[in-house]
Amino acid sequence: MEKLDLAQIPFSLDPGRKLFKPLMEGQALDWALRQIEADKHKKNVAPNKGLITAFAPYAAEKKVPWFRECERYLFPIGSGVSIPVRPSGFWVEDGRLRVLWAQCWKGRTLDPTQRAIFNTILRQTFFVGDFKDAALEWVDLREKTPRAGREVDIVKGDDLGIVSAKELEDALRILLAAFEIHSARKAERKATETAERKSRDRGPDLFGPPSTIIK
């Protein structure tokens, strides 16, 4: 959390994520690339072109009649804090609902334990009701080798693993504690920055601090 704040990432991958649906429904990669190139935020262009170029072969293989984006769900972990859960979308294949989770980070991914925790949370929040028996496809789009470009790694939901209720509780306790520490530090930094900005806006004290007269 601290590293993400300090990194101040100057772009968003949302433009690329929004093109997953048309790509899954058969739109050509060239068309999708033109949409990205038209983005007014030029820092978004290169990262999102890389993202959809990596995703396109997977989507072309599917080429489904329809693909629906998922709503966002919240998984509470305590103290009013929740984890947002939103798969990329779903479709029907061979008579069965299938759910896509595209892992869009370029520089890293979840390790096996984190994947199992993630999958356990997903099963409790999304894979209920109509989606109870749906199949999950985790599509990892990270760059495995630096400067070699993104790759596609498809993992079936059953291979992501799950954790026990106790293991999940312990992991979420650590996450919540980390979040609370991070939030406190962030609030402290913001207060310091605000005080410094007010001091600069006020300008120097022309008379200086009161002097002490020594008799």
Describe the global form.
globular
Compute the average pLDDT.
91
Residue fraction in strands: 15-25%
Terminal residue distance: 56 Å
Q: Which structural class best describes the helix and strand composition?
A: alpha+beta
Total strand segments: 6
Low confidence ranges: 210-215
**H/E topology pattern:** HHHHHEEEEHEEH
- Residues in helix, %: 40-55%
Order of strands in the sheet with the most strands?
3-4-5-6
Biggest pleated-sheet summary:
4 strands, mixed
Q: Determine the number of helices (DSSP H or I, runs of at least 4 residues).
A: 7
User: How many whole angstroms does the radius of gyration measure?
Assistant: 23 Å
Description:
The protein is an alpha+beta fold and 215 residues long. Helix content is 44%, strand content 16%. It is built from seven helices and six strands. The strands form two sheets. Strands 3-4-5-6 form a four-stranded mixed β-sheet, with no helix packed on it. A hairpin with a 2-residue loop joins strand 3 and strand 4 (96-103). The longest helix is centred in the last third of the chain and has 38 residues, at 165-202. The termini are far apart. Mean pLDDT is 91; it is low at 210-215.
